[in-house]
Fold this protein.
Amino acid sequence: MDRFVFNQRESAPNRIATLTSDLTLAYSETFKDHIAHPRNAGDLADANATAEEANPVCGDRLRLSLYVRDGRIQAARFLAYGCPATLACGSAIAEMLEGMTVESALRLTRKEIISAIGGLPTRKQHAAGLAIETLRAAIERGKEGGQ
């Protein structure tokens, strides 16, 4: 999956300048580290709880793959398509989930995801909501599958 989507009408230098400016001015060092070094990115071959959700407004997509055993999330992976905030939230939630009980995971909030990446501008906080929605969908689908 692609990590970023840009306005195709902008020239490449303008797209890069916009992204660089946004990352420099609006985001924390923790956020930038999740972008540069995503945690747990990829697919999980033996996942027993997966979901892919999309934000219908902006088109961002997030896929979570979980391996759950005895009520505990043993492994978590993510794939993201969309803005940098969606990538950072996917990275953060996948990192947070490993070792967590399913019950604790279901209590995670948008605010905790936002805090884990050092904050988000208000206009980008929908990315944390997408991460939480995808998590809940994955756990629900895992339960339906008998996990």
